[in-house]
Write a structure and sequence with these properties.
Elements: H1 2-18, E1 22-24, H2 26-36, H3 38-59, E2 64-73, E3 80-83, E4 94-97, E5 103-116, H4 118-185, H5 191-226, E6 234-236, H6 240-246, H7 260-281, E7 286-299, E8 316-326, H8 334-400, H9 406-441
Parallel strand pairs: 1-6
Antiparallel strand pairs: 2-5, 3-4, 5-7, 7-8
């Protein structure tokens, strides 16, 4: 059993190693999600379903043609007792007469055409408006997925950059440790200096391992958002320091009409007015035209495949055209209650629109302030990083020349790592703030 499990595990690993790594920029990731995310696929399917609903409603207004045929054979032919109209001496007062033939058949072809129905016309309009709702929901789903993908991509990219920085610090610290160890052997550096560097190096490696685990988890979450199998390998090709240019700045003009949520709420209002009108016109008459042709026959026996039959076996045709009118005279105040229900629901939606307008305005104001603050913070942290790099270089030069201490190097190294992390976090916060700002404006991520 153990060998079987090992064999299966080995085959799976070989299969995974054989898969090509999919390289993705942010734009590539957004395009991939637009095609493969199941939420977007379901929203697109809802649009197609609503189109078929419109087709079904429209079809009910087209001519409806049907045909039917039936045949029956009496095992006992029905009859009636009738008064004997030729009474004779000794004759019964009533005689039993059968008017039916044992075999009966008929075939009917009919066509109905809706001429006027107020509910049909409004139902067709309502179905089209509902299709528009699903189209807006599709756009809303795409927007939400794009935002989630962009944030997931940025999170993974930030962790990747942190790992790169730590690896660079590890390389730099390993070189410093090698130099200080050599100085210690020559008697120009204390053993304590070597131990401090070894301790710092060990901590950096532990941090790298933790970040590596977090990076793997963030990639899996990104794959989930993309609609990709989490076992498929991917590589991120964008750099966090240039991704800010990939996401253009938004036009800082707030217009509530650009928000899909607002458009959906207004679409609900339009549908509610159609519903109210539908209940009102439900009191109007419905007019239907019809055409029907029928062939019937009654025969003494089953002889449909025989020839040279007498006239009493002939098929008898009949054709009729007409109009059908239906009108509801009293519905027990059902329509009145339905109209009241629609109006109350519409009032709730109008309140939701007011609430959303206020919330969206607040969201934009907060997002704009956050963006401006983080934009300023990136500039400050970039200057701090440049200063920390310069201080670290000077501290190393002083130490090698014998005029500096290991404590000074350790402090400079700590300040450099802190400055790197602060700059990276500020850049991350800036891009996140830009994404939130574009969302508050209802703008596409990759469009200005």
């Amino acid at each position: 059993m153990r060998y079987a499990i090992c064999l299966v595990f080995t085959l799976v690993m070989i299969n995974l190693q054989g898969q090509d790594t999919l390289k993705l920029s942010l734009a590539d990731a957004l395009n991939y999600a637009n095609t493969n995310n199941t939420g977007i696929q379901n929203a697109a399917t809802d649009v197609e379903i609503s189109k078929q609903t419109v087709n079904q409603v429209f079809a009910s207004g087209l001519p409806q043609v049907s045909a039917n045929a039936n045949m029956l054979q009496y095992t006992q032919v029905p009859g009636s007792w009738v008064k004997n109209f030729v009474p004779t001496s000794g004759a019964p007062e009533y005689v039993f007469i059968r008017f039916q033939q044992p075999v009966n058949a008929n075939a009917t072809l009919s066509m109905n055409q809706l001429i006027y129905s107020g509910t049909f016309l409004l139902g067709l309009k309502a179905a089209k408006e509902f299709m528009n709702v699903n189209k807006l929901m599709l756009e809303k789903t795409k927007s939400d997925v794009s935002l989630n993908v962009a944030k997931s991509y940025l999170m993974a990219l930030t962790l990747q950059k942190n790992i790169t920085l730590i690896n660079a610090n590890i390389t730099m610290l390993e070189k410093t440790l090698k130099d200080v160890t050599a100085l210690n052997k020559e008697g120009f550096a204390e053993k304590l200096d070597v131990q401090r560097l070894e301790f710092s190096l060990s901590n950096l490696k532990v941090q790298r391992d933790k970040l590596g685990n977090g990076y793997g988890a963030s990639l899996n979450y990104l794959k989930f958002q993309l609609g990709m199998n989490v076992q498929n390998p991917i590589a991120l090709t964008d750099d966090i320091e240039t991704i800010d240019k990939t996401i253009p700045a938004a036009e800082l003009t707030f217009d509530i009409k650009n928000r899909l949520e607002y458009q959906l709420l207004n679409q609900s209002i339009s549908i509610s007015y159609l519903d109210e009108k539908r209940y009102k016109v439900g009191k109007f008459p419905t007019l239907v035209g019809f055409l029907q042709h029928q062939q019937t026959t009654q025969r003494p026996e089953f002889n449909f495949f025989s020839s040279n039959l007498s006239q009493n076996n002939n098929w008898i045709p009949s054709t009729a055209v007409g109009l059908g009118l239906s009108l509801t005279l009293f519905d027990g105040f059902k329509a009145k209650a339905a109209i009241a229900d629609v109006r109350l629901r519409r009032n709730k939606t109008l309140n939701d629109i007011k609430t959303f307008q206020n919330a969206a305005s607040m969201e934009f104001d907060n997002a704009l302030k956050s963006y401006e603050t983080n934009l300023n913070m990136v500039g400050i942290q970039k200057q701090n990083l440049q200063l920390a790099e310069e201080i670290y270089k000077k501290s190393m030069i002083k130490y090698k020349e014998g005029v500096g201490s290991s404590l000074e190097i350790s402090q400079a190294e700590t300040d450099l790592k802190s400055a790197q992390a602060n700059y990276l976090n500020a850049l991350y916060d800036l891009i996140m703030a830009k994404l939130d700002l574009k969302k508050s404006l209802g703008n596409d991520i990759l469009k200005p």
